[in-house]
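Handout, page 2. Input:
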Amino acid sequence: MAKKLAVDKWLFTVIVVLVGSGLVMVFSASSAVARARGEGLNPFLIKQSIAAAVGFGLMLALMHLDYRRLRAPVVVYGLLGLVLVMLIGVLFAPELNNTRRWFFVAGVSVQPSEIAKLALILFIASQIERKSDRVNQPELLLPVALVTGLVAGLVVLEPDLGTAVLLLLVALTLTFLAGLSWRYLAGGAAVLLPVLFLLVVTSPYRVRRLLAFLNPESDPLDAGYQPLNSLIAVGSGGLFGRGLGQSLQKLYFLPHPHSDFVYAIVAEELGLVGALALLALFAVLGWRGMRAGLGAPDLFGRFLAWGITASLLLQGLINISVAIALLPTKGIPLPFISYGGSSLVVTMAACGVLLNLSEHGS
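Output:
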């Protein structure tokens, strides 16, 4: 039986620091919007704090629940089935910002695509464990491709192409780490890239975003407005920043400063030093997450840890790349830092599983 180890203090500490940093940045980045609403208390901070408290409770619970229970078919397929029902149901929910990504129940919003990330990782990890000797055979590739394609396809319909691409990247990362042949990776890319191209060129707003990414100055008041103002925020921060709470771009220049573009506000208020410090925290998270996977006593635990780690790092990479105009604008939150209750709760729950795995060694 695997030897029980103490929880990874490095990993636990970096998670707590990231959550705390997120609460501070949500408060700072949303302050102008909150004042404009005329509310005494910042509603964004209150909601994010409640989400952090719920997430922390889930994280502690999952830290003490043996991760092996998560491999049970009733858990894997039950969660996957629930996610599929929610992803279909959300397509009939009321629109918000021309999308259907959230359920609203008693003032609480739930985003099924966030839960889908964890459900897909559980499914793929369980498949790899049971079929580790058939990674390059249809027994593994077919169910992983079908489930990933179904989940990602439903997310595209919301529409949310960014999260769909993230799901595909996580699936490819896990199967590659399991030993997927390069020829299958090349074949997958040959299929997915034309599909991605069609999804972009058949959507006028995606075409505008792509053209604005290539040349933001060509449309500075519409599609290029967000990337240009994000770059202004990042550039004006200098080495040490304007100071916490002193951002100018959050004063109705940069849209969504507390969610999609919170990293630009970090760079503006805390400068290059603060922006790099945040990157360093994610680097430590990646290091300890990969280490937890390497120390897991079985393949399920290994790929579960690696899947969670890859999901958080890839999501962070995409968000930060958008903020510094290395990718077209996408509505993907920065884990722990961006405003969003569903994202924070699911992220912290996933980190509870990761911390649980860190307690085991072979």
